[in-house]
Task: structure prediction
Amino acid sequence: MAEFNPKIVAFLCNWCSYAGADLAGVSRIQYPPSIRVVRVMCSGRINPAFILDAFKNGADGVLVAGCHPGDCHYIAGNYKAQRRVLLVQKLMEAFGLEPERLRLEWVSASEGDRFASVVKDMTAEIRKLGPNPIKMLEVED
Amino acid sequence: MTNKVGSVLVVGGGIAGIQASLDMADSGFRVYLLDESPGIGGVMAQLDKTFPTNDCSMCILAPKLVAAGRHPNIHLITNADITGIKGEAGNFDVSVRRRPRYVIREKCTGCGVCAEKCPVEAIDEFNQGLMNRNSIYVKYVQTVPLTFLIDRDKCIGCGTCQEVCRAKAVMYDDKEEDVVLNVGSVVLAPGFEGFDPRLKREYGYGRFTNVVSSTDFERILSASGPYGGMVLRPYDGEVPRRIAFVQCVGSRDSQVGNNYCSAACCMYGMKESIIAKEHAPGVQCTIFFMDIRSYGKDFELYYKRAQDEYNVQFIRSRVASIDEIPGSKNLKVKYVVNEQPKEEEFELVVLSIGMQPPKHAKELAKALDIKLNDNGFCYTKEFSPVETSKPGVFVCGAFEGPKDIPESVSQASGAATKATSIIASERWKLTTTKVYPPEIDVSKQEPRIGVFVCHCGINIGGVVKVPEVVEYAKKLPNVVYAEQNLYTCSQDTQEKIRETIQEHKLNRVIVASCTPRTHEPLFRETVREAGLNIYLFEMANIRDQCSWVHMHEPKEATAKAKDLVRSIVAKASLLNPLPKPVISVTHSGLVIGGGLSGMAAAQDLAEQGFEVDLVEKEKDLGGHLRHIYYTIGPEDPQEKLQSLIKQVSNNKMIHLHLNTKIDNVEGYVGNFKTTLNSNGLKSEVNSGTIIVATGATEYKPTEYFYGINKNVVTQRELEEMMVNGKLQAKTVAMIQCVGSRNESNPNCSRICCTQAIKNSLKIKELSPETEVYILYKDMRTYGFIEEAYREAVSKGVICIRYDDENKINLTQENDQLKLSIWEPTIGLSVPIEPDLLVLSAATVANTDNEETAKMLKVPLTKDGFFLEAHMKLRPVDFATEGVFLCGLAHSPKLIEESLAQASAAASRALTVLSKNALETEGAISNVNEDLCSGCKVCEPLCEYHAIEMKDVDGKKRAHVLEALCKGCGVCGSACPTGAISMLHFTDNQIIAQVRAALKEA
Amino acid sequence: MEFEPKIVGFLCNWCSYAGADLAGVSRIQYPPNIRIVRVMCSGRIDPDFILETLIHGADGVLVMGCHPGDCHYIEGNLHAERKAKMLRNLIAETGLEPERMHLEWVSASEGARFAQLVKEFTDRITKLGPSPISGENPNKVILENLLAAKRTAGDFRLRVIVGRERELVEDKNAYGEKVPQEKLDELLSEAIKTEYTRNRIYNMLEKESLSVRELSKRLDLSTQDVLTNIVVMRKKGMLGVERIEGTTPIYMSLEVR
Amino acid sequence: MATPKKEIPRVGVFVCHCGINIGGVVKVSEVVEFAKTIPDVAYAEANLYTCSSEGISKIKEAIKKYNLNRVVVASCTPRTHEPLFRNACEEAGLNKYLFEMANIRDQCSWAHMHEPEKATTKAKDLVKMAVAKARLLEPQDEPEIDVTPSALVIGGGISGMTAALSMANQGFNVNIVEREPELGGMLAKLHMLCPNFEDASKALSSIVDAVKSNQKINVLTSSEVEDVKGFIGNFDVTVKKDDKPLKLNQGTIVVATGAENFEPINMYGYKSNENVLTQMQLEKLLKTGDLRKPDKVVMIQCVGAREEKGRQYCSRICCGVAIKNALIIKDLYPETELFIIFRDLQTYGQEYEACYTEAREKGVHFIKYTSSNPPEVSSNSEGKLTIKTYDAFLKEMVELESDLVVLSTPLIPQKDAEKLSKILKVPLGSDGFFFEAHVKLRPIDFATDGIFVCGSAHSPKDISESISQALGVASRAAIPMANKHVRADAITSIINEDLCSGCGTCVRICPYGAIQKNEIGIAQVTSVVCKGCGTCAASCPEKAITMRHFTDDQITAQALAALEG
Result:
């Protein structure tokens, strides 16, 4: 069987993490092509519903990345993101979905290397976990 | 009289130069921003983190770089030098020589293929020689302008870069070019040059590999530096376990001719040790210092954290020498504590190098005909801190004297005000405004999406099969057109996009290329020129986040590129045109506080042609300065104060409200409505901006028999005694840090050390035989004040250290004060019987600050001073737009610092007042009042106070103040009823984007 | 048994191969150790071919082309000369005797010269003895070095410099100036040294993740040299940090195209 | 690169005895047996003479019988015999590029006659090597290109006109592009020709008339070549005539742009004294009859030629010209005293030497100077000229007075030579004249097929030499036009576009201009221009280029086969 190639939705804040992902590119740091980036202005913008919807639609993993604590362009949006992610992870556990499928990471604009290694690491982890079990079920809205 | 010119030349593209440029360009002047290096960003771009917030330097700088680079009224001139100046204030001709770059700025896309293929390697100066670059290069990848250049000294002219450049940007026959800029004024911000630590031979820099400079260490710490952010020592790449930081290398050192203090090194030394610990847990950092000068706002707290939280070890000693241990290449640091020679072994030594005048300061001074001070920095005066000796030429940043980033930024804004006030009549005369065609109404149209996929030379096309992506895009729903471009960002492609929009009646445009962070503005501009609302544009990043990072997996990368296009098409189908809310601006300012800062700020605004209401709660103008009779410089503060009061009182543009308090503030940027209360008489003032300059208060000591013994006075009282000729004492003792740096007020009051030195010098001048003792914790005579400290010591003022362990023992016997203090250098307690004990009392926040803060919806620090929007880069702004801050209300500071800040606050206010209307972001929050339950969850979440609760049919409903909303979306994702949507990032749009990404292709 | 060196000859079709034919037609005798590979032009001979041949244990490689000015393809031989010069420098780094690779010009009429040159070369190689990497117990260090050298010879940077050398030195560069030969030589030898070092590091890390110190020991380079090159290689995405062991980062090689 | 068609190689090996030439030294039967053990060898046999008709038919039979798809003949040298065997393969239905030879005679049996054992071992190795390569061979095509039977002649001087006439007379259409408004070039400015004293105008008008009246020749005056694309047989030429572009399709191109006369500014009082002339100016005076009788004339040779640095070349014709003009003056004004101050008198060949003798007999004085002691010319206020020169025979300085000083200056390259060389992608020599493919053997070809050079564009020469070259060029250019086709070589380079980074190394290295970058910067080979040397492949920094029939894999496989076992 072919190797399982997970699909990971990544929500990146515009100012730090998206810039960090860009820097990984500029520095040609290679990482697995597993992620699909959705740019939002601030990690605080990420509604828990987005994350759940992504899982419902078959995402094998969701990465939320924002500025490091204290670096938020919008002062404190990242703290809000942090709370939400923790809550969603709790919910996931209740659903029987491994909370490791959702990750929150701080990536600054100068951490291209870190962004790449986060993606690498997470891809490997999700690969171990296997495909999103919900994907198998036919879920209709 | 010559005609005035509405443009300004800014020399130096560091943070100060950038800030000055942005302020002036935003308030209606054309700016030429010149840098001698090939890109702007200055030293700040080299830094890893910044104190005291430990913000990532590049994260906060990069948006400023982009803003300056894209500003229609800022013209960057890089790789250039000033060669001369003619004319006079208001109308100068400055000659500039631009060195050849060999790469055409308009054509270079910054893709970097040239450097990748360049066969010549050279030392990368930006990375302090710890890395290599090629002979065609950019300073750093975020640099602006992102135009490569050729290092002609290294280049062998092999022609490879020209060959591989698909954009045809390389031009080998580029020539030196002389241009003359006609400007009204000049702002100098050339920064500083780091002290060359080789000159301190005993420290071994350049001989011992593991001795690095603090700038080297910044690069070592940086994630984009040579070691990818790992703390490694250069000799063998091991993580050091023990790092020594040696302070004052090239500062406070007469041996090397630099008597002054470099003002920032203590803080950055601490910062570097803290960050080192964060990057390499377990590392032991030791700082060798003479005095810790953490005098800035909340800096003392940082110092405490370094000691308590991070266990940084502090050793008060000047390091004598450093030896390398053969074999291990570890370093033996030799120093003296309490007259005892000691030595300690470290694996890495960081030399905290001082600031020196910029390398070409002398040439610059000569070319511009300005004076330098004895230390080679720009000559300024205490009461005109941003003015050089030549009228019309202004200065800011470290060229004026060593300083940190926020001080530089304040000064930069201050210089901006001064530089434009002499040409205020020319506002908006040389700026460009673009006229756009009316927007096409697309509301009733089905989405018709055009997709432009960029090859980016080989950057994308070399990995992703672009034609395949184009064919794929054509089949996606709502896509009516797709094509590929060699460079979608090139000028001819913009024309192509415009034509295609018209020809195919496109109403949504997608470019699949690089990052929106740099290129979205360009394409938005293009679609707008074709009559589309800018929010009908979207980008898919198939380069930085696809082709470049999956270079060895072309198949997967192509699949990913298709996914990214599909998912952005899904979003684009749901895009709506958004208006950019326009707010009218009341063209007058309100200044709260009639002290030095308030008056100066008011005067600045008035000089620029705006009416000002100046509110002072006391009956007289002057504030704190009324009690200052001497300064460390030659100027007479009272004379200056009186002349300023006279100017302000006589200025018809300034409306004075004495004996007046603020009762209420309503409105937002551009349209504030403030209720004034003058002894019960209420009135309303409208203003576009508000400047807070409410000052601070001197601490009333409760310690050291103050108020009990009449021979115990404060520094302020001492000054009054001296000026009135009442100083009789034969022995004067001064105690520093009274009411500060203690449990209840942990911060340093910054100015008291200077006060003590100033007054002791005055005492010595009035009565040379009087003995003066200063009992201090750390002597914080930063910058050039250090020289006054030296003078005081040389005139016999005796300074003795005390601290919480080595306390001052003070008793009184019949009013005779007796104190003793242990002096470690002689190993004895020194008894002193002062006739006069002078307490250096802290400067503390006004008690009514809390009330004012509430009315203005702005925050305070723990100790009650006003808290600015960002410690580093927005020192006089509040997060609340339109409200600014200066002077002692911000934190304790010296006269010249208050004046610079006052002008800075005025400059920031001018960026608002100068406009007829403010255009704000369109992608903001939007409340559906039908869904809002009035639960108020959103209100406190908003850091910008952009949400208020409004009565709608008797019910509370959330309401977004469009002018204040920054569009982060925090409220939207928290709203329990889903009533708030973030325009341009709506739930539907994001979910559609995510789902499309997950759909199998 | 007497040592019979294995020699591979790369000969251009028009002059040298014809010269070799002429030697035969004239019945001029020379040692039978040489095995000739015919190519159209000496300019065709990629440094790769020569290194590959040496790696496989050839005791000597003899490259022959037309005399300068006689090249059937105008100046392919002059390019061959530049490549040979680069190779000599590169081979010298590996510990293999650089004399094992030799370039000569032979015209179609120089049958005798051909035979003479082959004889001389064979004698020289016989004197040198078998290639240290041939036989039962090949010298692993030199073999490793040669593998690194082969990667190096395939490096874009070196190939660009060598490919442009004649133009830059004999005609003019992009600025219309002639580059002094010494300057180019300096650049080339610098490039050879660094790229070779990097490839040695890379090859070694391909087998096993190692620290700077260990690399420095095994490659007999200073730690600083190793670290400086690791910095560049990390930037190019050739290496990564596998883990940090105590205070020691351990590096690994990453896949590159 | 593996064989694209995944067919398993079936190699047939034919080992030739060549009478006793091979068989007398090498044990052929042993080689055959050995060959059979080599992987992928499906058949092996020995022949007495593989090149005999019997041998050839055996190859053909074996190909069919054993279903061979590669053939190796181990015999003599491919340089002479490859075409024959290739032919055999083709006749048996096998692409001729699936054939390979092992040279076990010239480079083995003949060269190691006294070491039969070692020679046999070597022969085995050579066979093994040939098989190793043969296994990887691929079929190749030799594309045929149509040739437009029309030539472009650039330059309407004597060379260009002669070449044009000759080609037109052979039945080809010719376009002459001349930058001046009239045909004639340098010849139009001359008085009499050297060495036969023919009237230049007469010589010129006869050929101009012939050109103008020739139906096959189209003359474009006041025109310049702006752009040339394409290759032999199919050059797309853009000519700018009177500022309007004109497109021409041409099969061949002749460069006959001639040369200019060097103007010796600031030398020997030229320009500052009106009595200092160049030979060219003297010709004009002679032609118009405006030369008043001088008492004394001094001619100085090698003015601006044969320099230490700069123009180092000899301009070849000036000595002849000086003597010719001296004789003409002597004819006109027998009393005039004439001096020719020279460095080395280069009156080569019979006629020029005869003129020299005649001049001496008629009293023209010859003084030799040396480059270290050049003559000096000064003039007094009345314009009288004084020439001081070192006399190398007398070994002393001599002083002459003169009414007229005539400077013999060299021919120099045309100003537009460099531009044209770039348009045509043909080289200039270090002296700036067009540079031929081979100094000795291809004196009028360029390395680029289908483009030729003649006349002074190549180097200074006199009329008869120019005409000879022009006729030569006409004959060279006529070959492909008469054949109507040329065959392109199959051994050409191929570029892997995915790997190409557009660095341009190959473009710069290729002496034939066969590689150009396309609009997106990827290198492209024009196969018909490529000669197959392979220097580009060996130099490509991205290793994106390989050669047909000499791929990297084939060459290394062949070399490494020698080292096996």
